[in-house]
Design the sequence.
């Protein structure tokens, strides 16, 4: 698909900081929080970046996938670590689909099938 | 792979490289590096003093790495003569000059390399050699180099772009990782990289791709853990370096369409704290023909130092200490994020 025909534009990622144009106080609070979340803590910044990469795939955010693929590489992650993180996201996503099938199972039984 | 020069590439010309950096900066409306330093109150940039003499003894190399800022390779013929080395030794003897940092190419391939180290070691100053590791296995002529380094207490600084084979070989050539590990084991066996041995072995990491080097200490921990556990190899410190958007790395940025994003990223990541500690402030770079530069990158861009002293034969520390350092857009590479120097992160 040509770039002009999609809502997602890679160059928009660089404009993320502009979200405070009309509401600077809340944006500042968000970015301060965001920065604190990703700082080294009980988890290393690299581990947090790998979690972010997995979540980026689950929520299917193209901006986040671009940003955290680069970020994990910058933090020295291996290709194996990147793909294991992505598979963790995929496993949770598929698991969360399948665990709902218990409800379907219950309903089937409730209906006397 | 041949060097840019041997391939007749336009990028072999330093003028062409500077033109591209200027054009991309103008297209993206990026501030000049000088303007950025002015904002930070650091312009004009002046040395803190010539402490380190970094001597590039030639562009001849046994490898042709994809990111090489020197455009070095087996096809390059530029090589420093013994006479020019002698002039470097006179400069090294100057009080206040503490370190000789020998680089290339593969500096060991200069026919006068051992003589240079032997003579330099008589001054009792620190001697560093930028060794690509594989040269230590490149034939009988080089096999005893580790012992030679140890005998003269030379600090070995070796490139190893990653602790895994795939990325290292992608950047430096097929088989380079395995041979590097073998060379590192040999250096370890002599005490290099082993705590309290007195023999220092530092590794240099640079990203294998169009991204910046992240936290040096995290990377060092990863390298130490992986190299010890998987390959039984040890080293002292890891220096994380940013790839400069010049020469063969510039070529790869242009080829894969990353030049705009990379340059923009370097500018966005400008760190004034890193800018105060850039290596050009305490280092003088000497070219294979004795010409003087503010750093090895300026050398490859043919940006000779300003002022009355232009050759190592005219070395005058007080004149050089007060010179103005020449700047261009590639300088953003040394001031991005935690900064980058021949000794790794700055800030």
Sequence:
């Amino acid at each position: 698909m040509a770039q002009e025909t999609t809502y997602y534009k890679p160059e928009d990622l660089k404009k993320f900081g502009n979200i405070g144009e009309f509401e600077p106080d809340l944006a500042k609070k968000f970015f301060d929080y965001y920065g604190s979340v990703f700082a080294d803590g009980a988890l290393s910044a690299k581990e947090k970046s790998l979690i972010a990469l997995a979540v980026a795939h689950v929520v299917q955010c193209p901006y986040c996938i671009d940003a955290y693929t680069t970020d994990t590489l910058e933090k020295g992650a291996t290709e194996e670590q990147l793909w294991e993180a992505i598979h963790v996201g995929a496993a949770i996503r598929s698991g969360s689909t399948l665990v709902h099938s218990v409800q379907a199972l219950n309903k089937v039984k409730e209906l006397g099938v | 792979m041949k060097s840019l020069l041997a391939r007749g590439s336009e990028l072999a010309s330093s003028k062409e490289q500077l033109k591209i950096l200027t054009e991309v900066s103008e297209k993206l409306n990026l501030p000049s590096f000088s303007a950025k330093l002015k904002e930070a109150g650091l312009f004009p940039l002046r040395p803190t003093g010539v402490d380190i003499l970094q001597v590039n003894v030639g562009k001849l190399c046994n490898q042709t790495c994809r990111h090489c800022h020197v455009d070095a390779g087996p096809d390059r013929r530029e090589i420093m003569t013994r006479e020019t080395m002698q002039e470097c030794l006179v400069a090294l003897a100057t009080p206040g000059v503490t370190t000789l940092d020998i680089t290339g190419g593969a500096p060991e391939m200069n026919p006068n390399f051992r003589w240079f180290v032997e003579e330099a070691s008589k001054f009792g100053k620190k001697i560093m050699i930028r060794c690509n590791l594989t040269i230590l296995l490149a034939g009988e002529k080089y096999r005893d180099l580790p012992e030679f380094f140890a005998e003269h207490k030379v600090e070995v600084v070796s490139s190893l772009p990653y602790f895994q084979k795939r990325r290292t070989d992608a950047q430096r050539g097929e088989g380079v990782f395995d041979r590097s590990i073998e060379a590192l084991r040999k250096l370890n066996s002599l005490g290099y990289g082993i705590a309290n041995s007195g023999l220092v072995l530092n590794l240099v990491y640079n990203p294998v791709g169009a991204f910046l080097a992240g936290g040096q200490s995290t990377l060092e921990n990863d390298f130490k853990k992986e190299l010890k556990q998987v390959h039984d190899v040890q080293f002292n410190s890891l220096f994380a370096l940013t790839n400069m958007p010049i020469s063969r790395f510039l070529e790869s940025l242009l080829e894969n369409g990353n030049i705009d994003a990379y340059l923009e990223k370097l500018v966005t990541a400008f760190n004034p704290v890193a800018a105060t500690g850039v290596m050009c402030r305490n280092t003088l770079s000497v070219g294979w023909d004795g010409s003087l530069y503010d750093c090895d990158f300026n050398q490859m861009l043919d940006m000779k130092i300003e002022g009355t002293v232009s050759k190592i034969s005219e070395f005058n520390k007080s004149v050089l200490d007060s010179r103005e350092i020449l700047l261009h857009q590639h300088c953003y590479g040394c001031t991005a994020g935690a900064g980058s120097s021949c000794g790794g992160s700055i800030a």
The mean pLDDT of chain A is 94. Residues 79-99 of chain A form the longest helix (21 residues). The domain at 22-111 of chain A is CATH 1.20.1290.10 (AhpD-like).
